Amino acid sequence: MIDIGTDLQANRVTIFQNRSIHSVAIALLLGLSGTSSVWAADFDIDLAIYSVNRDLLVIIGDAEDDETVRLYDDDSNVLFDTVTANSDGKWLSRKNNPEAIPCRVRAESKEKSDERGVSNASRFPGGCGIDDGGGNPPPPPTGEVSINSTSQNCGSADISGNNIACNDTNVPEQPIVGNTTGHAIVAINDLGMHCGDLDTRISSILPPFQVLLAQVIQKGEEPKLLGPNQADVFYSAASNPNDPILGDPNVFRGLTANGNVYKTNFWDFPLPSATYDAFYPAFNPFTNDSLMPLAKVFDIIHKVFDIIHDVGLPVPNVENFYFTGALTVAFQNMPGILDPYVANAPQQVHEHLSDKPFFTEFPFGYVANDVNWFEGAGIPFAAYDDAGRENAYPLVRVDARSPGGGNILASVDTVLPISGEASCKNCHADPLDPNFNGSRTNDPTDELESAGLPVVDSNQDPLFKDVDGNDVNTVPVDVAIEWATDINVLRLHDLKHGDKYVNTSCDGVPAGEDCTVSVSVADPCTINAATPNGSDSCLTNQALVQNKPVVCQVCHYTPALDLAQLGPLAGEPGTIPNGRNQAAHSSNSNVMHSHHGQFTSLFPSIDPPVQDGIGGISNQETRLTQLAESCYQCHPGTNVQCLRGAMYDGGMLCNDCHGDMNQVGADFSAGVSPQNAGDFQLGLGNFYEPSSGQPRVPWANEPGCGSCHTGDYNDNLAKEPGVIKNLADSMGNDDNIRLRQAWVVGDAKATPIVPTNTRFAENPIPEFFNGVLNKGAGTIDDPESVSDGAANPKLYRVSTGHGGVFCEGCHGATHAEFDIDAPSLSNDDVAATQLQGHTGTIVECSTCHGNTMDNRDTLDGPHGMHPVGDNTKFADGGHKELAKDNLEACQACHGPGDRESSQATGTVLSVAKTDRDFRGLEHGGQVAKGEPIGCRTCHD
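Given the sequence above, the corresponding structure tokens read:
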């Protein structure tokens, strides 16, 4: 028996199977209203929606094969369409420029009937005034402001794929509620940079995909983190009047030749629902009894993508699975989705995680406990804004609201970064392409030409130029260059590796062998001058002939797209792996880094820093050139340059944390091939032990803060052999506490250092979670084995700190740590300035405590901090007794000596984060931002 539960207020359709233990739920977070059963196989309406900017009415449903269906306006009883179901029992009514928009539609056939409200109908001029089940955006706020939006709050194309012209238009922003209402909200993206392809017709590396994390704080002496029954979180487009791109005339790269705005064609050629099918299990993989097919659920998802642009990929909730066995997914939409380029309707963050399971079935996995954050995963930002500007650092306004989406309690503007530069064009574009002169080498295209295979340039893109070379005005030049590059890459891949291809079908699998895991069936691809698009097995053929864009990670595993955390899989479509073939291939990280790392003339290693003794790096210009020629070729481009945080300002570059390309590429899949399928190196020990034989797992084994911030003045690893210590900071202050390299010189694995003093390190992974061994086996009373991950540091992006606030909330996102000194990246500093009044790490206690810390003497702050500021009791003599009774606690950050010592001038751990004025105190003076504070600063 299959039942349907529909919660109109939550705008959520839940499909579940009555079962004593397990259930499957899909949350379709769109305007899917109505109460009819979407599972009924005989006759129903699955979807009824009106798109305002496309002036399109779409109704989809089910009936018997070849059955005739009549559609009526349920209020006026006027027949407006008659359609016939296909051989699968599916029917579709699509009315462009309809004369009237029904508030509710009725489908009839023979003696059968079904009704459904039309989502978004009340937005039609004149309105129908019905409750459409949550499809309507809330009314505009009072006192709204209108400014030129620089964020991606609108769609890209009409239903036919034609791009919509859009110039700088005034888009309303939500009012911002300052940090004074008794609440605060901290919000950040989880990685510091996300990437998405400009063009998805041929192949894709990454979809439009953002992850927004937020915590709502009720201020007080003991602040509280509010959960989903106490607050809601919404996001909408925001802008910064000081955004550097506003004055740059060279950023309008998202405009076509006739001035139309291009966003992305992710939803058009073909649908992402088909392109990304393989990343979703076709059956419920989390039950041990009979598997429940999810085909109907994903069929609905396909229909949604057929109609609605600006809907993000569905993201499974791994916490629900871990604790309940239920498979649930949620969508996140773009602000203003129902009225692009005009509206800025806030969208709700649909998930809240108490604990975050992180690949718990793997030896390296664990549960990141007590994260307590709202998570909006899959927000589909594109690289171009509403005016066609390429802006990698767009802002969103994140609101905490009272339950039910009521009053705004607090707001903050944060960057959701997105780069479209993660392209292969710098080496694989045609060197003779008349629209691109940036190809760094002829080798890839020469290899194609030597084999008699054509090399494609951007002028051959049918959406850029017609056969006579005239502008078609559908895509910008950068999109056409990527389209051509993708074809060149697929042809080269087929040429070099096609003879080793294997398939995921059951053809040729020996009787009795499970075809869902077998990867031994040969399926070679033949490509040559006579067949330049190759045979059916060729990737080029799939993209150009079969119209199936290639997603690299279907074969080359990456945890980044393993949204259900199932690990590398192989199997035919319709099985759990659903067409993936990852068990026969090395990981995406391995093939990209190890292959390209061999071309040292193109991708040089970055030299270690040579310090001049006073904080300068004498070879930094050389290192920056090497960075531009290596990591920045892909991560995520020479223009975006995503490494932009405090560490970059201090001179640290990619290799200083991660090692060189070959070290990064030597991961757990290095020995896997079609002839050595499934031989992933896991469970060989603890990767964080340099002597261990366990290779790294990309996205899971990463350097942490503690790898360089190995302790305080009293206890650190700066004097250990093989480390590169930092001699001075960017202000010229002596350091000799922190390290410049996260791994020991000469370590072949570039193993991240794990400090013994964890003052500044990420949380260690506990051995047990909820009484169970953290990797999922054994209990406290009866452990079956030792957790390989126990005591290792968690990832920075899943770690929490003082009061349970996640580390990124106070310190900024990975690769974009506060503060961002470069003026061209000022959008990143907006959040910190709104929260505490100045840029940099969140250090002002008032951000969360109000003024309750002003009169307290304590070292219970983050990392053992005391209250800071020039109006605190602690500054006004309150530290006297502490310094007398426990001077060592002061020296941990403020350095050697006492008030009588000439040494007591502070350290890099005690620099002022903003200008301070202590002249109102007995011994006070002025301290400039960046100046170390020691006893002698005031007692001189």
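The chain has five domains: 2-123, 145-276+285-293+317-327+334-419, 425-548, 588-697+705-761, 853-938. Try to locate this feature in the token string yourself.
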